[in-house]
From TrEMBL:
Protein name, as recorded: 6-phosphofructokinase
Alphabetical list of SUPFAM superfamilies matching this protein: Phosphofructokinase
Record field: transmembrane: none
Keyword Cytoplasm attached: yes
InterPro entries membership: ATP_PFK (IPR022953), ATP_PFK_prok-type (IPR012003), Phosphofructokinase_dom (IPR000023), PKF_sf (IPR035966)
Biological processes annotated in GO: canonical glycolysis; fructose 1,6-bisphosphate metabolic process; fructose 6-phosphate metabolic process
Organism: Pseudoalteromonas denitrificans DSM 6059
Domain annotation Phosphofructokinase: ranges: 11-291
EC assignment: 2.7.1.11
Length: 338
């Protein structure tokens, strides 16, 4: 009977999970190159936790990560895997790791993926390291997540184009960007595009009052000759009603032609900008170094320009967005009357 031979080399596995983010491939490349250099056997599970549960994986070698640093999406595919929310699924994922003699797992994903990683750590006792990869930048403990800056540049490119047509028609535009429940993409793309208003839920305490003030200030601006085009960037889920409804309210109140646009999934695609490639590469290398040092249950992140480690168990805390976004808005508010 053939025996399942334990591989001589230490086996390291990678998954990408949750929403794909530009730069995930750059991270897979960096991990693979560093791990191969350090003598590991490297595999990648397909479609996040789904691949772990179903033992679907590929071998990662020099050839598989060649020419991927500039590509959006993820060569390992990704998924939102419901089976991880029940014990049976987590146990199956743990069995796969044991059966394949895997000793370390690197999870590239968002805070949800890190929750999945923690659930796994209750049954599987190998080393788990997280790398923050999500366009939303909503992970506690890191200033940056892989994909964030690319998503902003993509949103910015779209907002600039919409600004051209808004200007040509003297229209008001309400533009919705992604971020799930977090306003960072709205804030940065709004600042960079010179938006007249930025709306994210972190800045709203009383929605009815906020909308009333917003309408008054837009109407006041519409009575002046400047600005002729008026752009409002709104984060998805910031309001209890749709972006189209907000445009309608503004149009009715100000009598200025108002349109809405939802930028959507375009923000998740495309070649990663330099910043995301560099970050992804740095985090990938440090993740392998952490494994070499026998570390576990940590995220590798970036804080104040330094690469840091942070407990995975604290990555889901929602304690950074409000104060950071309010500070950011204060830094850029001009409040001009011309
Ligand atoms: N509480 C949890 N317990 C177990 N697994 C979880 C948990 N939360 C999330 N996961 C797993 O992680 C996957 C990805 O999580 P989620 O959909 O929240 O995306 P994410 O990693 O936060 O990325 P993004 O921010 O890009 O959406 C889930 O589909 C699920 O498989
Ligand atoms: O691809 P899905 O499952 O529709 O998820 C969309 C969500 O994913 C993200 O793009 C990244 O988390 C969010 O900004 C958005 O709310």
């Amino acid at each position: 009977m053939p025996q399942n031979k334990k591989p001589v080399k230490q086996r390291l596995a990678i998954i990408t999970s949750g929403g794909d983010a530009p730069g995930m491939n750059a991270s897979i490349r960096a991990i693979t190159l560093k791990a191969l250099q350090n003598g590991y056997d490297v595999i990648g599970f397909i479609a996040g936790f789904h691949g772990l549960i179903n033992a679907e994986f590929i071998q990662l070698d020099l050839k598989s990560v060649d020419n991927i640093i500039h590509k959006g999406g993820t060569i390992l595919k990704t998924a939102r895997c419901k089976d991880m929310f029940n014990e049976q699924g987590v146990k199956k994922a743990s069995c796969t790791l044991n059966n394949l003699d895997i000793e370390s797992l690197i999870v590239i994903g968002g805070d949800g993926s890190f929750k999945g990683a923690q659930a796994l750590s209750e049954y599987w006792h190998g080393q788990i390291i997280g790398i923050p990869g999500t366009i939303d930048n909503d992970i506690n403990g890191t200033d940056q997540t892989i994909g964030f800056w690319t998503a902003i540049d993509t949103a910015l490119d779209c907002i600039d184009k919409i600004r051209d047509t808004a200007d040509a028609f003297d229209r008001i535009f309400v533009i919705e960007v992604m971020g799930r429940d977090c306003g960072f993409i709205a804030m940065e793309s709004g600042i960079a595009s010179g938006a007249q208003q930025i709306i994210c839920h972190e800045l709203i305490s009383d929605e009815a009052d906020f909308i009333q003030q917003l309408l008054i200030s837009i109407k006041k601006a519409s009575k002046q000759s400047y600005p002729q085009s008026y752009v409002i960037v709104v984060a998805e889920n910031a309001l209890s009603f749709s972006t189209a409804e907000l445009a309608k309210k503004i149009s009715e109140y100000t009598q200025v032609d108002t349109r809405s646009a939802i930028l959507g999934y375009v923000q998740r695609g495309g070649a990663p900008v330099a910043m995301d490639r560099v970050l992804a590469t740095q985090l990938g290398i440090k993740a392998v170094e952490a494994i070499n040092k026998q570390k576990r249950n940590l995220m590798i992140g970036m804080s104040k320009g330094e690469i840091i480690t942070f407990p995975l168990s604290q990555t889901g805390l929602k304690n950074k967005t409000n104060k950071d976004l309010i500070k950011r808005l204060e830094q850029f508010s001009f409040n001009l009357t011309i």
